[in-house]
Amino acid sequence: MHISTIARTMLGVLGLVASRVPSLETRFHLRARLDGPWPHGPFLWLHGASLGECRMLLSVAKCLKKDIPECPRILITTQKVEVLAYLKTLPSDIKFALAPADTPFSLSPFFSAVKPLALVLAENELWPGYLSTMRKLPLRSSVALVSGRFNRFIFPSLLSSIGFASMQTGSDLQRLQVASENQIQPSVIGGDWKLLSWARSGKEVAPPKDPVIDTAFLSMHFKEWTSLIKMILASVKRHESVAVIPRCLEEVQKFRDAFREHELSVVDYPLVQKGTVTLVTEFGLTPEILSKSAAAVVGGSFARGLGVHDFWEPLQFGLSTFVGPYAKGQKETVEALLREGVITRLRSAADYSLRRPADYNRIEKFLFHERE
Q1: What is the distance in angstroms between the CA of the first residue and the CA of the last residue of the chain?
Q2: Residues 158-193: pLDDT tens digits?
Q3: What's this model's pTM, rounded to 2 decimal places?
Q4: From 101, 166, 182, 222, which residue has the greatest number of CB atoms within 10 Å?
Q5: ∠ CA 342-343-344 to the nearest 5 degrees?
Q6: DSSP codes of every residue in 41-60
Q7: Which residues fall within 8 angstroms of residue 59, CB to CB, at 6 or more apart?
């Protein structure tokens, strides 16, 4: 038995035990991950972790359906319960489901129901069980990795399941080729596929006219509170309007209470007022908010250990875009954007008061390159 199978079986047993704890079951929906139910296929299976990856895969799915007349039905799975709830509100003939746990006794019923024809993975969602089970299909290399990020993988032999890889950077591609012993062909540098819909749309980069929100704080974690509150207080002191989009909806109340402890006025979006914090309490509103904003600060970059979130989205709107001192998961891309003057790094919250608008022409030029 492969060592990954043993490890995944043990994790499955632990998950089953944890599912009997009401608080854990309510929060993580462990039984649904272990036992389903899952929709009945066959499907082309697309899998992502959280909202950013799943929105990107939704763009991929729409492009596939447009470009391939005989495209099979598509299933998108996610690791996040709240993301699944949001995806199910979208008008679409695409199916959505919670991803199966990476255990042998979960993947077996999942594959029996879904009957995946092939699997498209987003970024770095390289689950050993997914890869090993896909090797059982008649199609020799039945997995594609898109918008890939890669550092290392403890079971390199399983990478032979991948028949196509489009990696975000040359370094990602090089590391993948070394780990797979150059078995993955074709493999290309394809940039970040979060830009896919925008790139194919032909839309120009144009800053919003007459923005009502001075700064939008995107995908902020409560772990970033120390930096966030300093930046918010600096904005309020200038009588600016700010919007805060929490990364996790379960942290909305924590943000609300913390702002009020600092005697800040808090309103819920869509209400926006000068000198007031607008708190966003729903998924899927980021594009609407960016269309009304002058600048954006990207979360996940103000606390060590988090991963910087989607900086491409505010750039598509032509906004001055700021990231914090950390860029876990996207260091090379962030460094390239910094070198080109497309985004600005805030080394600390104190830099926020000294920030300057970005050069719009540089943003436009860089995004044109990424579109190509």
Answers
A1: 46
A2: 999 999 999 999 999 999 999 999 999 999 999 999
A3: 0.87
A4: 101
A5: 130
A6: S-EEEEEESSHHHHHHHHHH
A7: 193, 196, 197
